[in-house]
């Protein structure tokens, strides 16, 4: 594995993760640089005690370009992309339209009982493969290993940025989920705060009596068995008993680790076959590409690292071939979820596809 | 105003709110009754300490029928609907596919560190008008008054159901939000728990020092002024300083009351003109029907009634003519919102339409 750091014309960092140790990454970005937008401003919502990022510059971001104008494909003569190379294995670069960055602007008081501070942090794009029409589900084990290497590398490095409190690696897939680029890619957000959901899970873990909350959930799901969809020596994938979405799968390592950095090579190697099997099973459910959000829950940089337990939470909003689950009034406004698919039934459907 | 209670063929309750005191509501529902589904089961999510309702029967619910098969229009010969009458002003009835009900089933332990209990409660549909192609924004002041009468009536009555802890009146509008029926209507959920968002707001209110949190926010927004979009003697509508959605408007009465029941006739009368003006302004923004969720935040039945402050929170997911705001990885998985439209800009856009 070779790691090469380059700079795009506008100064953004780009990091290649290559399987071949002799990969040549000296090509330069020959595009005209555009000015880089300032970091968003964070506003404190006194009603919920949460931060919201205001990123007006993102309104102009690239929106579903045709395949031959994809900015995530390798560059070719006549079409220079974000990746100044004729090919790549896995590549990570700073998002051109970041929600968080270290390029700070001027932040004025907003009134309204809110507080304002700069959205310091960093947002990166992870290209999973150079193949525009591929998907994570189709990656080889070696390729997933390289992506995991990139995730762990970025988690460690982004955690060092002053002000960053949490690193979040995730993939949005499918136009139904709102992706603006079809090329197989994920994103990494380095947040300047511990996110509400992580804060909530860690608070639950702190109140839990017995063993570690996450370990106890994993053990209980493995004991119940009825919602387990796939398992190997190092990982178990299950639909949680109180799933919020019609098709939701959580993937836990069998050992409590705070983040991707802490996984052993054996654990990393065992993840790919299990996870891509689950993804292919989801696509098999209705014979259509399943839209999903896949989210790595890692420990914050500084807080709760003893309580946290690395795991992946994936959900799809597709509930039937022509029907989506929408987060409407009850979910969006009150946080009260109603799931139309029983978790045991969803697990049975997914498991039967994994077995195929 | 006349209030008439009837029963549908399958036993569900239906309540007419008529402007005319001589309205005759003796017509019977002549449809064959279908069996009523049992109440959902609630499962406790130990990771978030929240309840999730499992309502498998809702998968079969009516999905975007053509206008001439609308179940919310008045009945006519050859097309019997949910409303067994040739016309109505405002009508409320029990949802045929309820997330919560008092028709309990059998609930077994689910394992996985979850707890299970019956989803006791009630879900109602509120038809705002008999006019299929109308919308809330087009209702007359008298009609909005009747809807408010219905909301208050239902809030008071549903609060009396044993086990109900919160009554939520809301409207989902637009196919982008996931509505399954186009006829102008809202819903009422009587929940068997205090919802996560309400719990969160009340916890923030309990921690707030100074005056009442909500009253202080209202005063601060009125003082800042820049995000106020409309106001009259009894109500102020503003975009909150830390808005999560591209177009979000909160509407507060000027007096702290726990719920719709507690509004004076003058306050009720003043709401309609202000609110429908905001709705029309939203539709005017891009010249397209704006999808939205409009949510009345009322005090829970038993808890926090001294801290709570009735208000309405409305948001749209449309961020530009051809673009929607999706709740993807950061929002859905981590609860971390990124808003692409500055609240002050959104307020200016809405306010300029209200002035028209």
Give the structure's gist in a few sentences.
The structure is a homodimer of 356-residue chains. Chain A is α+β, with helices and mostly antiparallel strands and 356 residues long.
Give structural notes:
- Chain A has about 350 residues and is of the alpha+beta class.
- Helix content of chain A is about 25%, strand content about 25%.
- Chain A is built from six helices and 17 strands.
- Chain A has helices spanning about 140-160, 195-205, 215-225, 265-285, 330-335, 345-355; strands at about 1-5, 15-20, 40-45, 50-55, 90-95, 115-120, 120-125, 165-175, 185-190, 230, 235-240, 245-255, 290-295, 310-315, 320, 325, 335-340.
- In chain A, strand 11 and strand 12 (about 245-255) form a beta hairpin.
- In chain A, helix 1 (about 140-160) packs across helix 4 and helix 4 crosses helix 6 (about 345-355).
- The two termini of chain A are about 35 Å apart.
- The mean pLDDT of chain A is about 95.
- Chains A and B meet through strand 3, strand 4, strand 8, strand 9 and helix 2 of A and strand 3, strand 4, strand 8, strand 9 and helix 2 of B.
- Strand 17 (about 335-340) of chain A pairs parallel with strand 4 of chain B.
Low-pLDDT runs of chain A: none
Strand order in the sheet with the most strands of chain A:
1-2-5-7-9-8-13-14-12-11-10
Mean pLDDT of chain A: 94
Q: What structural class do you assign from the helix and strand content of chain A?
A: alpha+beta
Q: What oligomeric state best describes the polypeptide chains here?
A: homodimer
Determine the fraction of residues in helical runs of chain A and give it as a percent range.
10-25%
């Amino acid at each position: 594995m070779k790691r090469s750091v380059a700079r795009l014309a506008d100064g953004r960092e780009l990091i290649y993760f290559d399987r071949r140790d002799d990969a040549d990454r000296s090509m330069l970005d020959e595009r005209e640089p555009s000015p880089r937008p300032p970091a968003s401003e964070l506003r404190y919502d006194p009603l919920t005690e949460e931060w919201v990022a205001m990123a007006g510059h993102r309104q102009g971001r690239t929106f579903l370009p045709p395949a031959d104008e994809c900015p995530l494909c390798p560059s070719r003569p006549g079409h220079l992309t974000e990746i100044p190379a004729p090919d790549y294995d896995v590549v990570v670069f700073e998002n051109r339209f970041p929600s968080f960055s270290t390029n700070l602007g001027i932040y004025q008081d907003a009134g309204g009982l809110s507080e304002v501070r700069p959205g310091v942090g960093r947002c990166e794009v992870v290209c999973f493969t150079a193949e525009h029409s591929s998907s994570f589900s189709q990656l080889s084990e070696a390729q997933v290993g390289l992506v995991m290497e990139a995730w762990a590398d970025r988690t460690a490095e982004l955690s060092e940025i002053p002000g960053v409190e949490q690193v979040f690696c995730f993939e949005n897939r499918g136009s139904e989920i709102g992706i603006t680029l079809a090329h197989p890619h994920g994103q990494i957000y380095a947040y300047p705060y511990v996110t509400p959901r992580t804060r909530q899970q860690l608070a639950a873990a702190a109140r839990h009596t017995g063993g570690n909350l996450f370990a106890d959930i994993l053990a209980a799901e493995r004991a119940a068995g009825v919602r387990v969809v796939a398992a190997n020596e190092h990982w178990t994938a299950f639909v949680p008993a109180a799933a919020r979405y019609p098709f939701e799968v959580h993937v836990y390592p069998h050992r409590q680790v705070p983040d991707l950095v802490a996984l052993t090579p054996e654990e990393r190697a065992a993840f790919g076959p299990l996870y891509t099997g689950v993804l292919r099973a989801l696509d098999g459910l209705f014979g259509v590409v399943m839209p999903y959000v896949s989210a790595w829950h890692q420990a914050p940089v500084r807080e709760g690292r003893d309580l946290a337990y690395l795991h992946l939470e994936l959900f799809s909003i597709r509930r039937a071939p022509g029907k989506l689950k929408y987060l409407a009034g009850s979910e969006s406004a009150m946080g009260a979820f109603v799931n139309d698919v029983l978790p045991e039934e969803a697990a049975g459907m997914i498991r039967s596809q994994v077995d195929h």
